[in-house]
Design brief:
The protein has 5 helices and no strands. It is mainly alpha-helical. It has one domain. The longest helix is centred in the middle third of the chain and has 36 residues.
C-alpha cells in the first residue's frame, strides 16, 4: 500500500472541508436552498446518495487502515460518506430534515467553523507527514 495515501487523502478531505466552510460562510442561504432542494427533489436526493455512497465505498476500498490517528480519521471520513449516502438513499426526506435541524437551526456558524478547523487541521497534518 502507498505509504503517502493517508497523507494525500487527508489533504484532499481537508480541502473539501475548508472549501465547504468558506462557501457556507459566504452564502449560508445557498446551503439552506441546497437542503431544500434535496428534500424536495427525489431525483437529486437519490443521485446525491448514490455519489456519497460510492465515494465512501471507493475510499474504503483504497484506504481502511487504522494504524495511526490520521489513518483512523481518514477511514472514519470514508465510513461517514458511505453512511451519509445510505441515509439519502433510504430516507432522504427524514435525513435532510435531520441535517437541517442539526446544521441550520441557527447554529450554521458553529458548524462552518468546525468544518474550517477540521479542514485546516487535516491539510496541516497531511502536509506535515509528506
Amino acid at each position: 500500500m502507498n505509504d503517502g495515501l493517508t497523507d494525500h487523502l487527508a489533504i484532499a478531505i481537508g480541502g473539501y472541508a475548508l472549501a465547504a466552510a468558506i462557501g457556507w460562510w459566504r452564502a449560508p442561504e445557498r446551503f439552506s436552498r441546497m437542503f431544500d432542494g434535496l428534500r424536495d427533489s427525489s431525483t437529486t436526493a437519490f443521485m446525491t446518495g448514490l455519489v456519497c455512497y460510492f465515494l465512501g465505498a471507493f475510499l474504503l476500498v483504497l484506504h481502511h487502515r487504522m494504524d495511526d490517528w490520521l489513518a483512523v480519521v481518514v477511514t472514519l471520513f470514508a465510513v461517514g460518506a458511505a453512511v451519509e449516502g445510505l441515509g439519502f438513499l433510504i430516507g432522504s426526506g427524514a435525513f435532510v430534515a435531520l441535517a437541517q435541524r442539526i446544521g441550520l437551526a441557527g447554529s450554521w456558524r458553529v458548524w462552518a467553523a468546525v468544518y474550517a478547523v477540521f479542514g485546516v487541521a487535516m491539510i496541516g497534518a497531511g502536509l506535515a507527514r509528506l
